[in-house]
Amino acid sequence: MGPFLAERLQDLVLESAGVQDFLQELCVFSAGFIGKTTGLPVLCTVTLVRPRRPVASAGSGPGTRLPAEVQQATGLSPSLAALESGATVSVPDARADSRWPRYNRAVLRAGQLSVLALPLQLDPDASASVSFFAPEAGAFDDEAIVICEAFAARAGKAVRLAARIGASRDLNDDLLEALKSRTSINLASGIVMGQSRCSQAEAFAILGKVSSNRNVKLRVVAEDLLRKFDTTPEATHFTG
């Protein structure tokens, strides 16, 4: 594991369309890389947890789908245990492991026997883990674990970078959405002011009361009013 690995992981970040796309490509690459390095026919999943965002996960192939569904449904798995504890979690034989019975049954149904879950080091407000699956019991011996941990250390840097870029994109999207909402609300307030001959504060209060009574967002109320007046909600534009 040298410059090639670091460069390839960086390329995955730069070439991806977003966090989810990156995680998918990372899983495929990780399964192939660890498979070649250890000689094991492995599958791979990655789980990423960020504040105020849904848990993001991806897998290298159809064989990871059932375990992922059980993980999502139960909130229990070696992957989440590694993510929460910050330590490597090994399941040498899913047939004999009693820690995650439902998850292990899903692993067996997927044709896998061994699971190795490793935490990825991210920023303090995020956490992630990568998991490898193999169809043989005891597939991840001490040597394989060392290899996978070294890989996870490098992969964690790529995931951390992708998460930061994703957070920046999300912030920009949120700001644009807020600007659109503000434009619609201001226009609707103007209509209410003209109809009711009231102040802007009073117009805003009227819209807020309708929003509360209908249990819908203020922006929805504003856009409904604008549509009734055959006015297309406009976006705020900046020049300069």
Kindly describe this structure.
This protein has 240 residues and is α+β, with helices and mostly antiparallel strands. Strands 2-1-5-4-3 form a five-stranded antiparallel β-sheet, sandwiched between helices. A hairpin with a 6-residue loop joins strand 1 (43-49) and strand 2. Mean pLDDT is 88; it is low at 235-240. It has eight helices and five strands. The protein folds into two domains: 3-169, Beta-Lactamase (2-Layer Sandwich), CATH 3.30.450; 176-228, Arc Repressor Mutant, subunit A (Orthogonal Bundle). Helix 1 (3-15) runs parallel beside helix 6 (142-196) and helix 6 (142-196) packs across helix 8.
- Structural class label: alpha+beta
Strand order of the largest sheet: 2-1-5-4-3
CATH architecture of the largest domain: 2-Layer Sandwich
Fold-level CATH name of the largest domain: Beta-Lactamase
Count of domains: 2
Number of strands: 5
Low-confidence stretches: 235-240
Terminal CA distance reads 48 Å
| Overall pLDDT level | 88
Under CATH, the homologous superfamily of the largest domain reads: Transcription factor LuxR-like, autoinducer-binding domain
* Element string (H = helix, E = strand): HHEEHHEHEEHHH
- The portion of residues assigned to helices is 55-70%
Largest sheet data: 5 strands, antiparallel
Proportion of residues in extended strands: 5-15%
Morphology: elongated
- CATH class placement of the largest domain: Alpha Beta
Radius of gyration: 25 Å
| Helix run count | 8
Break the fold down into its secondary structure elements and pairings:
Layout: H1 3-15, H2 19-38, E1 43-49, E2 56-59, H3 65-74, H4 78-85, E3 89-91, H5 101-109, E4 114-120, E5 127-134, H6 142-196, H7 200-214, H8 218-228
Helix pairs in contact: 1-2, 1-6, 2-6, 3-5, 6-7, 6-8, 7-8
